[in-house]
């Protein structure tokens, strides 16, 4: 006579949940080592930005740009969304500031240090930020990633419309300054 069989639990239904929990735990642990660097990154970057891009040699009548930093990016209660926002801001800043069209009077050594600083921080954030598409679509008003992309696209259009002039780049420098200041707020939200 055969012994009655007891149904074995199917692990295949629990595996995706377990994988998500393990991914979240690994993400949290990966971000943990960034904390000491969080406090100084924006301010160190501001100092490098100032050393890299002093005011233009000739006075500029600042062009009135049709864009401001989107403050909706600062309103969130989710530390990983704040980290994802900082990551995307840095990726856009890196792409903009590494352009070969930057003004000749900018200090190349300070620019190199700033870009290295940004890239180093991007590398660390990429280890601890979940896929951005899901995170940005779940949180906040509409899609914050689209808002951020539009902001930096407007900056690129502004540079192009003004033929990458020193005065247009000075305005971009001021926008980068604002970005680093706002990143300080976002980095505090990551803690």
From TrEMBL:
An annotated GO cellular component of this protein is:
extracellular space
Please name the GO terms that the record assigns under molecular function.
Answer: cytokine activity; cytokine receptor binding
Listed under GO biological process in this entry are: defense response to virus; immune response
Q: Which InterPro entries match?
A: 4_helix_cytokine-like_core, Interferon_alpha/beta/delta
- Leader peptide range in chain numbering: 1-30
**Xref: SMART domains:** IFabd
PROSITE patterns, sorted: INTERFERON_A_B_D
**Entry-linked Gene3D superfamilies:** 1.20.1250.10
User: Which Pfam family would be a valid example here?
Assistant: Interferon
Which cell locations does it reside in? Secreted
The superkingdom listed in its UniProt entry is: Eukaryota
- Does the keyword field hold Repeat? no
Question: Its family?
Answer: Belongs to the alpha/beta interferon family.
Tell me the function of this protein: Has antiviral activities.
Q: What is the name attached to this protein's record?
A: IFN protein
- Organism per entry: Ardeotis kori
Gene name?
A: Ifn_1
